[in-house]
Specification:
2 copies of one chain form a homodimer.
Chain A (H helix, E strand, L loop, with lengths): L2 H17 L6 H8 L3 H8 L2 H20 L1 H5 L16 H10 L6 H16 L7 H22 L5 H23 L5 H26 L1
Helix pairs in contact in A: 1-2, 1-4, 1-7, 4-7, 6-8, 6-10, 7-9, 8-9, 9-10
């Protein structure tokens, strides 16, 4: 990615987190990124193009700081935040789900911007396809780790557990970002949910055996 | 509540759901509710007063359509949506948590506005106290029903389960409202989570016995 393209996307994530999708104006974004509006239109065609690429940028960034990029073999795999190869599925699962709760500006901004993009889809369907695809990839990744941990559980049960864990993460994240839940307690609740779901999947497996 | 006060709060919930807290302008709200801006200031003092009362209005409305108002003995207890007295805790719990997933304009609008008010607290602390109190009352109510169902489970385990179930509800609700999850599947996932948490609390109780 060129430096200027990256600067525009970083600026877009920042503006969306701070002012919402409704508050994203191309002129303001140009000022934020230190580029001309013409350059923004050259790279992203229109406002929808900016939103789509900002969503992809935010998803990649989350994959990087949670270490999820490692499993997916993306360019960030070798970065400092990536887990060592050979990590067991439980550790990987906890990493992916717990590293969304870190009191760091990048994580806060990323999660806030993701929430704004999702909320935008309530009234405007333009991003639904991309949001749906990003959500489905996330669920699939978590379901694969749950299936590795509980190989005897039915696959559809692992998928439902993954849907619940990722939706819970979004709910807890919203409360944490809004100052309603301390980050440590959000993490503890998330860790507890991982244990509860794995316990349940394990018991399903043993019933079938 | 006077008819005009109610009309203003209904208008505020509508505008917040549609345009977010940032999009709530007193002039627009006056037009929406068919009253003067002077009347709005007379009833609510300032913009923060409108937001606070809108939050209380939205919380009461949710209590009414989920039947939670029945247990709390509020004025809506005798309404058509309230559960019959003597309903068992499991039914009450499912009602409170599953009736947030109804494809009705009132429920959609209410949940959307709640999400916007919560997201507003990310940058502005003015509503945090009220949001925290409303959230704590909700968790307490759910925890009390879980404790009634699993009397041998430690109270703090029931509270953590209630925190997870209510946060999951917010996460699933966000996905449903954004068109990323069909309402029936959201309900099934929620029902599944209730079963998983009750199963876990039941096993904790039996370990202690």
């Amino acid at each position: 990615m060129s430096d200027r393209r990256r600067a525009i996307l970083e600026g877009a994530a920042r503006v969306i987190a701070r002012r919402g999708v409704r508050g994203l104006r191309v002129g303001d974004l140009a000022a934020e990124a230190g580029v001309s509006t013409a350059l923004i239109y050259y790279h992203f065609k229109d406002r929808t193009g900016i939103l789509r690429q900002a969503l992809a940028f935010i998803t990649d960034r989350a994959d990087r700081y949670t270490g999820a990029a490692d499993g997916a073999g993306c360019e960030a795999a070798g970065s400092a935040g990536a887990p060592p190869s050979g990590t067991d599925p439980r550790q990987l699962l906890e990493r992916i789900l717990l590293l969304e709760f870190q009191d760091l500006p990048e994580v806060r901004e990323n999660s806030t911007a993701w929430g704004e993009l999702r909320a935008h889809a309530i009234f405007d369907p333009e991003l639904r396809e991309e949001l749906g695809a990003a959500g489905a990839a996330w669920v699939e990744e978590v379901a694969a780790l749950l299936a590795a941990l509980c190989p005897a559980a039915p696959p559809e049960a692992a998928t439902c557990a993954a849907e619940r864990l990722t939706a819970l993460l979004e709910g807890l994240s919203g409360r944490w970002l809004s100052g309603l839940l301390p980050v440590g307690h959000a993490r503890d609740l998330m860790r507890g949910a991982i244990g509860v779901e794995i316990g349940r999947l394990g018991s399903l497996g043993s019933q079938i055996d």
